[in-house]
Amino acid sequence: MDVFHVTDLNGNKLTDESVINYIEQSLETIHYARSPSMDGLTALELTGTDRVGLLSEVFAVLSDLHCNVVESKVWTHNGRIASLIYVKDCDSGTPIEDSQKIDRIEARLRNVLKGDNDIRSAKTSISLGVTHTERRLHQMMFADRDYERKPIIRTSGESPVVLVQNCLERGYSVVNIQCKDRTKLLFDVVCTLTDMQYVVFHATVNTAADRAYLEFFMKHTDGTPISSEAEKQRVILCLQASIERRASQGVRLELSAADRSGLLAEVTRTFRENGLNVTRAEISTTRDSVLNVFYVTDGAGNLADSKIIESVRQKIGLNNLKVKELPSIYHKKAEDEEKNQHSGGVGGAMLLSLGSLVRRNLCSLGWIRSYS
């Protein structure tokens, strides 16, 4: 028996009957197929080494090959990138099924992902499964062993704390996690435990303010607990990675515009030409319009200069590209500058914590008492 105490994204009690009914129906039905909106599309899977301008090159290749990007999600973590891109033929509007064209697409994208130094680990393929997109991104990054890579950016004070111990008298392994709360946190953790072939028998998840506390009692699918120190350390690394992959570093930019051929290639090229790196992206198309979300930093993963952000907005269109969320560091910097102006002093050099690059999460999972 599983009991969930949930709220809406603003922390309020659910009162919309249509939402409640949708939740009930969803929990009563097991969905094996992907979303109907993905029907009639060709799914491309990409993994490789992340670098500034990589997305620009990927979308430029797809545009050149007359592929229209309809939906896409892009994650980056520890210097790696994973993306699921749903495309259709620009001319016919149908799925791309010609084997020779598919081979050309895969080969050219693989060359882009390889760059100069990623010959062995760059991968492109046509997705044949029906897995949920975000679940598949976890699987792709897990298979790419992103959890073993040396972090390119280490956020100060924001790393999740994961502890693993065995409860021998009950035959379980117990995993405790403490981290910053955010939406889809439980989903990310449970996906990873499932993909690692663990079964959760009991769990307690609580949230307080912006913190989340998760405890899982689990075993292998064969009924045995974790058996070695090496396995314990692997579980810790994999769970930390599962929580960090969705972390949104940088400024959140939203592009809302009429859809047209080559739009993504142009927008991401503008990012690249101005030294902005995309750390996460969500591309969606509805009828003839697009709503694309990008999180951007500078080329080193640090805070992007606000003047560069505004310059990029001028080039793409102020009404089309809007700043939707600023890292808290922007507000702190503005407050410090204001204090310096009032005091008449000259502001000295500031050491900025990388941890403050992680955006403040405004939403929580609510109070969740038990999950198995």
TrEMBL record:
Keyword Repeat among record annotations: yes
Keywords (A to Z) from UniProt: Repeat
Pfam family for this entry, one: ACT_ACR9_3rd
InterPro entries hit by this protein: ACR1-12, ACT-like_dom_sf, ACT_dom
PROSITE patterns cross-referenced by the UniProt entry: ACT
Domain ACT: 43-127, 252-331
Protein name: ACT domain-containing protein ACR
Gene source species: Oldenlandia corymbosa var. corymbosa
